[in-house]
Amino acid sequence: MTKRNSLILLSEFINNQDKFIYHTDNVFRTLSTLDNDYPNFTNWYYTKVIPELKLGEREVIMAYNDADKVLSGISILKITEIEKKICTLRISPKYRKNGLGKVLFTKSLEILETDKPVITITKDKVHQFSPLLGHFGFKLSQVIKDYYINSREEYVYNGFLTQNFQLNNNKIETVVTI
């Protein structure tokens, strides 16, 4: 049975500085371990996501578990004319396998106004996302080595990543483009 979660958009608090800061920092604390998988996650979150959210080019969906009163899931979206992307989708371990991933994914698609946004997943996490990707009909488009971390492959669904991002000033090697 799906536990009850309330979905809240971070953009709803832009005009209330105290609540905006509280939720911004709560999301960051929940996601802070992503620095292990994505170097400079902290910098990206505070210098790209938050400023671009204020410009309407990003959104953060927060799922709060109604019973436990905790942040149970998060989706970070990029919403521009040239790119519709699910940048981050994280469900806290305690709340996995109860439908929250599908709920956040569905809300993400609604906000992005597309049923086929780009999403990238590191190779070692693909197995966790396979049921969701299959359910929503996502197709593998590209596999890039060394995109975020040396010697790791990033799987790209429903689109392609540009090669203007460089890791440690090294050229990115594309392994497979499907």
How would you sum up this structure in a few lines?
With 178 residues, this protein is α+β, with helices and mostly antiparallel strands. Helix content is 29%, strand content 29%. It has two domains: 1-115, Gcn5-related N-acetyltransferase (GNAT) (Aminopeptidase), CATH 3.40.630; 118-178, no CATH class.
Report on this model:
With 178 residues, this protein is an alpha+beta fold. The protein has 2 domains: 115 residues, 3-Layer(aba) Sandwich (Aminopeptidase); 61 residues, no CATH class. The chain has 4 helices and 8 strands. Strands 1-2-3-4-5-7-6-8 form an 8-stranded mixed β-sheet, sandwiched between helices. The chain starts with a strand and ends with a strand. The C terminus is likely disordered.
Span of the ends, CA to CA: 38 Å
| Integer-rounded radius of gyration | 16 Å
- CATH 2nd-level architecture of the largest domain: 3-Layer(aba) Sandwich
Structure annotation, total helices: 4
Major sheet strand order: 1-2-3-4-5-7-6-8
* Major sheet summary line: 8 strands, mixed
Number of strands: 8
Report the helical percentage. 25-40%
| Topology order in helix (H) and strand (E) letters | EHHEEEHEHEEE
Question: How many domains make up the coordinates?
Answer: 2
Q: Based on helices, strands and strand pairing, what is the structural class? A: alpha+beta
CATH superfamily of the largest domain: Gcn5-related N-acetyltransferase (GNAT)
The percentage of residues in β strands lies in 25-35%
What CATH calls the topology of the largest domain is Aminopeptidase
